[in-house]
């Protein structure tokens, strides 16, 4: 499911991202600067959301989260991605996600925790970070966990739908999206763990049949 959303989404946004990336490189902006600036923008959007400005929060977080496609494009266009850039990108993703979900918890607390949305939000926050951790740790061990129904893009989109429903005045909208997100994020943790387990090479001694 995740790649079905991610691949066409990238193709669509590339029409805006590619010329923007070329322009920024021409005026001397670096990919790492875009990575950090995009995260600062997400933090501002998250703060807006926490203060009850759900529509503006969602708009600003969406606009700034889209820079996540811009930094990598810039790095590839200038002829070289960097390991530090990849580390910075992933680290900023985790900070941005923490801020956005933390902001939503703060907002829901002020609303009196409708439909238990705070609990769903905390599950989504923790499970979402674990989803990313499992992939990174699996990679470091030589395993593959690059699967799952709710990768980062899907998680943000579901939260975005909730943010818009909440901004439209539907009190159940944000909690409903968060409960769906909590369930899908937990499922994704198990999908990644199971996939990583299956990709572990069988040791030669166990693979060879006993004579
Ligand atoms: C329907 C209404 C919804 C609300 C409005 C939404 C409108 C959105 C408009 C367009 C859709 C956006 C399409 C985005 C296309 C971008 C595609 C893209 O390039 O994605 C790639 C980018 C980077 O991926 P990486 O592979 O480099 O990143 C990896 C990823 O983080 C991995 O995570 P994991 O899956 O493992 O958890 C890490 O493992 C890995 O370390 C890392 O490298 O991926 C993105 O994820 C970019 C996300 C952009 C999403 C923008 C949409 C945001 C929508 C809503 C925001 C919700 C705000 C809610 C605020 C509430 C009030 C506070
Ligand atoms: N500051 C950066 C950010 C990213 N990269 C490279 O791009 C890859 C991610 O691509 P996205 O299109 O998803 O952003 C990342 O793994 C790095 O290889 C970079 O070099 N510098
Ligand atoms: Mg990126
Ligand atoms: Mg990123």
UniProtKB/TrEMBL annotation:
Cited PROSITE patterns: CDP_ALCOHOL_P_TRANSF
Note on cofactor: Contains a di-nuclear catalytic Mg(2+) center.
Active site: 93 (proton acceptor)
GO molecular function: magnesium ion binding; phosphotransferase activity, for other substituted phosphate groups
Functional pathway: Phospholipid metabolism; phosphatidylinositol phosphate biosynthesis; Lipid metabolism
Binding sites annotated in the UniProt record for Mg(2+) 1: 68, 71, 89
Cofactor: Mg(2+)
Residues that, per the record, bind Mg(2+) 2: 68, 89, 93
Membrane-spanning intervals of the chain: 23-48, 115-133, 153-170
GO cellular component term, pick one: plasma membrane
Entries under Pfam families matching the protein: CDP-OH_P_transf
Subunit structure: Homodimer.
Record-given protein name: Phosphatidylinositol phosphate synthase
Species assigned in the record: Paractinoplanes toevensis
């Amino acid at each position: 499911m995740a790649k079905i959303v991610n691949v066409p989404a990238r193709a669509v946004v590339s029409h805006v991202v590619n010329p923007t990336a070329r322009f920024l490189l021409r005026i001397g902006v670096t990919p790492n600067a875009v990575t950090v600036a995009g995260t600062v923008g997400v933090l501002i959007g998250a703060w807006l959301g926490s203060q009850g400005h759900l529509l503006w929060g969602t708009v600003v977080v969406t606009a700034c989260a889209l820079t996540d496609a811009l930094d990598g494009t810039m790095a590839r266009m200038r002829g070289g991605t960097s390991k530090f850039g990849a580390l910075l990108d992933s680290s900023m993703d985790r900070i941005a996600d923490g801020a956005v979900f933390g902001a939503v918890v703060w907002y829901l607390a002020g609303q009196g925790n409708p439909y238990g949305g705070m609990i769903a939000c905390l599950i989504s926050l923790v499970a979402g970070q674990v989803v990313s951790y499992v992939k990174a740790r699996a990679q470091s061990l030589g395993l593959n966990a690059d699967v799952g129904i709710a990768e980062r893009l899907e998680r943000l989109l579901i939260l975005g739908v909730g943010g818009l429903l909440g901004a439209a005045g539907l009190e159940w909208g944000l909690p409903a999206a968060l409960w769906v997100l909590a369930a899908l994020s937990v499922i994704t943790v198990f999908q990644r763990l199971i996939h990583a387990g299956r990709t572990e090479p069988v040791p030669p001694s166990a693979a060879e049949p006993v004579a």
